[in-house]
Design brief:
The complex is a heterotrimer. Chain A is an all-alpha fold. In chain A, 82% of the residues lie in helices and 0% in strands. In chain A, helix 1 runs antiparallel to helix 2, helix 1 packs antiparallel against helix 7 and helix 6 packs antiparallel against helix 8. Chain B is α/β, with parallel strands linked by helices. In chain B, the strands form 2 sheets. In chain B, strands 6-7-8-3-9-10 form a 6-stranded mixed beta sheet, with helices on both faces. The chains are: A mainly alpha, B alpha/beta, C mainly alpha.
């Protein structure tokens, strides 16, 4: 029978915590960029200008049809080379981590764009008509009438997506970024205690995501009650 | 045939049924009426055990419904039920709706089950629709199919739970006609309905419920002649004047 | 930009074996498809079972099914995969663990990836199945029981057939997710499509062609699956039935 030995975890906590801050930073960046860029994409996709709509649809469909892991590899292996040769950076200047982060945010934006588009479309057409009837411009109607209602409806979905995204960050493992999972793996590998470290990482993710999902549930219940 | 004795039911502290007793004899037609929320639908669902109850006893054809060791599927197989919203199975053709329970519950061979279809559909005037799906029929037609589906099981009695209240007015009569026909053939029937014309025409007795209690249980003529309780009088006045 | 494109590199014989680099890519694609289909099959079976359990009137069973969903939904896929691959064989009775480790490495990787993806996806399928069942009018269940069908027969003949028809669209996107998530298997060394893209970069020194080709393959898979599911959706349509709510 396997004998557990958890002794390497306490000493590694500061290192693991460092990893967790990377994970949280990644998550926060991707959520913020995702929502901002996602909103723009959603509005482009719904706009009457064919070129914009076409671009947004292409962007969203492209990112949604390939694995996140492939995107991260693109941004880890290929994009830095491209930038090097395009912008004439000296080879070896390390943009790989930033690049992976950007790739992650761009990927998640596509998912946010779809959530936000559905949210915008859930606002009845009559609301837009009423805003125009009051003399508002397209921008005003969007900003003052449509988006506030859409976002209120979307809050639970956006938060749920943030939880998924938090889990997705573990995939930056492929770009050698030391996030929480990467840190746990390194410690386990170093001490020959992979079993304990992986179980520990799983437990930490579970507790955090489960707690967050309970919060979201409560929040959305309050939302529907009000 | 159906014997309801001191039945009581509550959700938490809310009393849905209280001390309900009545009797449906073989060949009898009983109409149960009362304002909405009076517990009449709940009572009829207790008869075939779709709703559990905490007090009293219901005996159908000698079998106690509430007893823990009662084989409910076996009992239900011989107690037909028709619902307010028809509840045909939308993914099956009309014929498949008629044969599903015959095969799966009664164990009839497929061919035998199918063979019963045309006659049953004839009886409710829908022979031509056998290959269609429920969504392609009108509400009245669907409800007639639902009656045929229940009859396909050769039931010893039939329960009707507001069979016409989800129908457009012009379709009510086609369903009532089928029910009248059934009553005339001597089927034992318990009907929750507001169709007082139907009650007058074929019911042997009328049961009036209010607030989970059976307030009145009288022969049809006596009930319509002079209901004893004030609640029943008010109810009849409301229902007959629109 | 002075990059020399060499698409013909795919036709050159690969560094090992007698295949071309195109052959490598084909093998990766086949692995991705096999892995995804096996995992999807498992997810449908386990997810349906769990989804049914979540709706039965028995606290214990529905509670267990809910816990099942929470476990697989709240741990990152990559962590789950590593646990199946690195941890589980250690925790099994030694005889089993050793038997697993003596398997062909590709078999080990494939088995771990199928089980991992299968369970992960089943938790999501479970939630869709539950939502589908719960969106059916309650009277359907009553009507079926009133005809004398048992609860099991009611699920089998009445509720599940209708629930599945209602959830074809969300299941389509889960099916697509399986293909995308299968790329995670590259992290334990399974040579599926994403892993092949890395290999190709290393061997051919033509990174752009390799990545573009593999990316296009994923997009093609997406299109194939989507049109397949559209066909299923058409087949599953019920005449005269307008969406349930």
């Amino acid at each position: 029978m396997y004998e557990f030995d958890w002794s390497s975890i306490p000493g590694a906590l500061p290192f693991l915590w460092q990893g967790m801050t990377v994970t949280l930073e990644l998550t926060a960046t991707a959520v913020v960029v995702g929502i901002v860029w996602g909103t723009l994409l959603a509005m482009m996709r719904l706009s009457a200008m064919p070129l914009l709509a076409w671009f947004a649809a292409g962007y969203v469909n492209l990112f949604r049809s390939i694995p996140l892991l492939m995107v991260l590899l693109w941004f880890f292996l290929i994009v830095p080379r491209l930038l090097e040769s395009l912008l004439g950076f000296p080879p070896g200047s390390d943009m790989r981590l930033t690049s992976a982060m950007v790739g992650f945010a761009l990927f998640e934006s596509a998912y946010y764009a779809e959530i936000i588009r559905a949210g915008i479309q859930s606002v009845p057409q009559g609301q837009v008509a009423a805003a125009y009837a009051l003399g508002m411009s397209y921008g005003q109607a969007m900003r003052l009438v449509v988006l506030p209602q859409a976002f209120r409806n979307m809050v639970p979905l956006l938060l749920t997506q943030a939880i998924i995204l938090f889990q997705d960050t573990s995939l930056v493992y492929v770009s050698a970024l030391a996030d929480f999972f990467g840190a746990a793996y390194k410690v386990g590998d170093r001490d020959g205690r992979l079993v304990e470290l992986l179980l520990f990482a799983g437990a930490v993710y579970f507790v955090m995501c489960y707690a967050a999902s309970l919060l979201v549930k409560r929040l959305s219940r309050k939302g529907t009650a009000a | 045939m159906i014997s309801i004795r001191n039945v009581g039911k509550h959700y938490g502290s809310f009393q849905v049924l209280a001390d309900c007793s009545t009797e449906v004899n073989k060949g009898e037609v009983i109409v149960v009426c009362g304002p909405s929320g009076s517990g009449k639908s709940t009572l009829i669902k207790c008869v075939n055990g779709l709703e559990p109850f905490q007090q009293g006893e219901i005996v159908v054809n000698g079998v106690s419904v509430g007893a823990p060791k009662t084989d409910l599927p076996k009992l239900r197989a011989h107690v037909g039920m028709v619902f307010q919203h028809f509840e045909l199975f939308p993914h099956m053709s009309i014929m498949a709706n008629l044969t599903l329970a015959q095969e799966k519950v009664l164990g009839r061979p497929h061919e035998e089950a199918r063979a019963k279809g045309p006659a049953l559909l004839d009886r409710v005037g829908l022979r031509a629709q056998a290959a269609k799906y429920p969504g392609e029929l009108s509400g009245g037609q669907q409800q007639r199919v639902a009656i045929a589906r229940a009859l396909a099981m050769d039931p010893i009695c039939m329960l009707f739970d507001e069979p016409t209240s989800a129908l457009d007015p012009e379709m009510i009569n086609e369903v009532l006609d089928v029910m009248v026909e059934l009553a005339r053939e001597g089927m034992t029937m318990m009907c929750v309905t507001h169709e007082m014309g139907f009650a007058r025409q074929v019911a042997h007795r009328v049961v009036f419920m209010d607030h989970g209690r059976i307030v009145e249980d009288a022969p049809t003529e006596a009930f319509f002649g002079a209901p004893r309780s004030e609640r029943a009088q008010q109810f009849l006045a409301k229902i007959l004047h629109h | 930009m002075s990059y020399a494109w060499h698409w013909e590199v795919f036709l050159q014989p690969a560094a090992s074996g007698d295949a071309t680099y195109l052959g490598w890519m084909g093998a990766g694609l086949a692995m991705t498809v096999a892995l995804s289909l096996a995992a999807w099959l498992m997810a449908l079976v386990c997810g349906t079972l769990a989804g049914v359990l979540r709706t039965v009137p028995n606290r214990l069973w529905s509670g267990l099914a809910a816990a099942y969903v929470e476990v697989f939904r709240n741990i990152p896929l990559l962590v789950q995969l590593f646990i199946w691959y690195f941890v589980l064989p250690e925790l099994l009775p030694p005889a089993w663990g050793d038997a697993f480790k003596q398997l062909n490495p590709v078999t080990q990787q494939f088995a771990a990836a199928v089980v991992c993806l299968g369970f992960f996806t089943s938790a999501r399928v479970c939630e869709h199945v539950r939502a589908g069942i719960e969106s059916l009018p309650r009277g359907q269940r009553n009507a079926s029981l009133a005809l004398g069908l048992t609860l099991a027969q009611t699920y089998r003949h009445v509720m599940l057939p209708m629930a599945f028809r209602l959830i074809v669209p969300p299941l389509t996107s889960e099916f697509l997710n399986v293909f995308k998530n299968s790329a995670v298997a590259s992290t334990i060394g399974l040579l599926e499509l994403a892993a092949q893209s890395r290999q190709l970069v290393d061997y051919t020194a033509q990174p752009y062609e390799s990545f573009i080709a593999v990316t296009v393959m994923y997009m093609a898979l997406n299109v194939v699956v989507m049109s397949g599911m559209r066909w299923v959706e058409r087949k599953a349509q019920v005449p005269g039935y307008i969406g349930a709510k």
